[in-house]
Amino acid sequence: MHQAQTKKNAVISYYTPHMVDTETHDGWVLYDVKKITESLEKEFMRYVERLKDPVQKELRKKFCKKWRFIIEKGQGLK
What we know:
By secondary structure, the protein is an alpha+beta fold. Helix content is 50%, strand content 13%. A hairpin with a 7-residue loop joins strand 2 and strand 3.
């Protein structure tokens, strides 16, 4: 989890031909919010399916370790 922020010559759009478009407008980078969101959702679902797979023990171990860390950090904020 992190905060994202655009830099100079970056534009958030819903109408680009690609997820990240560096060619349509010279000197600008356009990020298509819809395409990025759809791609992230698909990747998240693939990740969830991998977590459910009994063979993926190491992946689940790392997932649990990270969530333990996040929970412990959150409890320190109380």
